Predict the structure.
Amino acid sequence: MEIPITLLFSDIRGSTALGERMRPTDFHAFLDRFYRMALDAIVAHDGIVDKVVGDEVIGLFFGGITGPRHAAAAVAAAIDLAERVAQASITPAAAIPVGTAIHTGEAFVGATGLGTTVEDFTALGDAVNITARLASAAAAGEVIVSVATAEAAGITTDQLERRTVAIRGRHEHIEVVVLPRPDKKRVTE
């Protein structure tokens, strides 16, 4: 069914280079640490983890699970995650370099699969694609929030950095705000 939803996409910047410098089991432990932090932040704010794909975690926040303030909950989860990864050293000198984006829109939310077989529970649609593209525009340590989500969450955006992000494959650009970083000094590209 199509419903209003807020999506959170968060992924590690430079994971290929990190994987090159780490032993495979150490890289697995590093990814697992990020996954656990993301899961904890999303679930603590009444969201569900939709997927863990490579170095990315996708969280869903919507009325039936999160309640009517799902946009605010997703923003709180993103801030929580940003704080967690800013303090979580992968080396003594650096935090986990994560970029996160949040967007609110309409999406199909439900089961997918062939015929009568349920293979996945997920969200599909333009809002999902927009959030994925916004996440790719977020630098390490950044949380970017679409203006639509900021408004739905009740965030005052007057003092926040604004950007217009071109979305590959779409004619319309998306306006976003950048939330303050939890700890600018420790987050690296």
